[in-house]
Write a structure and sequence with these properties.
It is built from six helices and five strands. With 136 residues, the chain is of the alpha/beta class. It has one domain: Rossmann fold (3-Layer(aba) Sandwich), CATH 3.40.50.450.
Length: 136
Amino acid sequence: MTSVYLAGPLFTAAEMKFNKELSEVLNKNGYQVFLPQEECLDKNTEEIFYLCKAGVESASAVVAIMDGADADSGTCWECGYAAAKNIPVIIVRTDIRDSGDTRGFNAMLYYSAAAVIEDRINYTEKILEALKNVHA
């Protein structure tokens, strides 16, 4: 089973619900998902760092949620680390607000991604297609 690291903000009930629902869609389509909000329960910050770092390293691809006025700093780190390790990053933005250098986020994130998905409605189908295209 191909592994996917699902990166994204997880600080509100809405964010956690979105992440969980997307994780379930990926699981139903044959992907093993590392979801930090589930994998890191009851861990201290140092344990979270090393557990998430290992999760990125073992992933075939990273799916990164970049919603909000500014991209979550932890998500940005996970994307940069994955890109440095030549792990494909699929950036997903369902937020229609403009911010950053390239519509929704910083150019360094945008141009290091294997795919960028900007869609509020059909994003799950587009994520699955992007994962196939990066051979994850």
